[in-house]
């Protein structure tokens, strides 16, 4: 083979100097640096499976465990990071926010502490953020509202405090929002009701106040919502008849609040309503007959209220146990 022309040699020498983040056929240096910083912060539990110099794999070495990459032009980028259920201890690894091509970040079921850094808003391509079952603290950063591609947000079973950020209403693709089992206070942002794709909203087991009426008073509220979990909070007021407009609703879980008043007959017009939990509130009056004739309603919990004598529940009642499989997507 002949020698390479001088001009080509110059290109091969100068190109890495002009574009230091790009190495031909290799992983973007920015991502390599970020993964090594994460590796250093996470400790020995992932070190044993993260071998080699390239997180996306090189030669006979596979990609680092939990790391998924894709090719963009002449280089590779990290698109998914899944390191869960390995008892990681320590603060949220801020270097994660330098992986700008991430579409999935899953660090659930560890022992991460401290706040989610506001730099999380840099991950503009993120679709799934799963941080449930950790020990994260402080407020939920409003910068999460900048993640316009987000479809799944799992922040449940942590120690978050403060209010639910109103900025979460800026997530047009959001389908699943899990915030239960935290220490959240204040009212549920009414803007959430305009999310066009939201199917599951769980804010149970917090310290939230307010009324359903102020949350659902706008026309066209929660158009896609199927599962609505508000249990174990401090909600007051009655059940507004406007809930009947949420025609996709299947589960309405209002147990263990301070709600009162009569149960509106309009609620029985929700065509797919399957589970209705009203127990341990201050509801009164009677249950409209339409509920007992509803074709899909399987269970209706009513104990712990002030209903008239003779009012009966529907279905076989049991202690609710939430299995971990319900959170797997």
From TrEMBL:
Chief localization class?
Answer: other
Listed InterPro entries: Leu-rich_rpt_typical-subtyp (IPR003591), LRR_dom_sf (IPR032675), LRR_N_plant-typ (IPR013210), LRR_R13L4/SHOC2-like (IPR055414), PGIP (IPR051848)
A Pfam family for this UniProt protein? LRRNT_2
May I ask which residue range the UniProt record assigns to the signal sequence?
1-25
Q: What name has this protein been given in UniProt?
A: Uncharacterized protein
**Could you confirm whether the keyword Transmembrane helix appears in this record?**
yes
What are the residue boundaries of the Leucine-rich repeat-containing N-terminal plant-type domain, all occurrences included? 29-70
Give all residue intervals belonging to the Disease resistance R13L4/SHOC-2-like LRR domain: 92-288
Q: What superkingdom does the record give?
A: Eukaryota
* Protein keywords: Leucine-rich repeat, Membrane, Repeat, Signal, Transmembrane, Transmembrane helix
Q: What PANTHER family does the entry give?
A: OS06G0587000 PROTEIN, POLYGALACTURONASE INHIBITOR 1
- Subcellular locations according to the entry: Cell envelope
SUPFAM superfamilies in alphabetical order: L domain-like (SSF52058)
Q: What organism is recorded for this protein?
A: Punica granatum (Pomegranate)
């Amino acid at each position: 083979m002949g020698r390479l022309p001088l001009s080509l040699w110059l290109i091969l020498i100068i190109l890495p100097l002009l574009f230091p983040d790009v190495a031909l056929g290799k992983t973007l240096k920015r991502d390599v640096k970020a993964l090594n910083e994460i590796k250093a912060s996470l400790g020995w539990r992932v070190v044993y499976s993260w071998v080699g110099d390239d997180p996306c794999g090189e030669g006979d070495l596979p990609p680092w465990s939990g790391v998924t990459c894709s090719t963009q032009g002449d280089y590779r980028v990290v698109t998914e990071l899944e390191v869960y259920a390995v008892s990681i201890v320590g603060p949220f690894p801020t270097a994660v926010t330098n992986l700008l091509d991430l579409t999935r970040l899953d660090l659930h079921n560890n022992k991460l502490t401290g706040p989610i850094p506001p730099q999380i808003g840099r991950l503009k391509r993120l679709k799934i953020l799963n941080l449930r079952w950790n020990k994260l603290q402080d407020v939920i950063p409003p910068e999460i509202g900048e993640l316009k591609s987000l479809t799944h947000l799992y922040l449940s079973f942590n120690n978050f405090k403060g209010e639910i950020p109103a900025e979460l209403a800026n997530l047009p693709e959001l389908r699943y929002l899990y915030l239960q089992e935290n220490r959240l206070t204040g009212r549920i942002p009414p803007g959430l009701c305009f999310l066009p794709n939201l199917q599951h909203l769980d804010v149970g087991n917090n310290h939230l106040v307010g009324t359903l009426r102020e949350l659902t008073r706008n026309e066209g509220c929660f158009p896609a919502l199927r599962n609505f979990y508000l249990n174990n909070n401090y909600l007051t007021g009655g059940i507004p008849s406007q809930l009947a407009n949420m025609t996709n609703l299947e589960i309405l879980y209002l147990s263990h609040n301070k709600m009162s008043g009569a149960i509106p007959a309009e609620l029985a017009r929700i065509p797919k309503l399957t589970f209705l939990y009203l127990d341990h509130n201050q509801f009164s009056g009677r249950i409209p007959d339409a509920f007992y004739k509803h074709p899909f309603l399987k269970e209706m919990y009513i104990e712990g209220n002030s209903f008239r004598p003779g009012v009966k529940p529907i279905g076989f009642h049991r202690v609710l146990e939430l299995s971990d499989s319900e959170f797997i997507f």
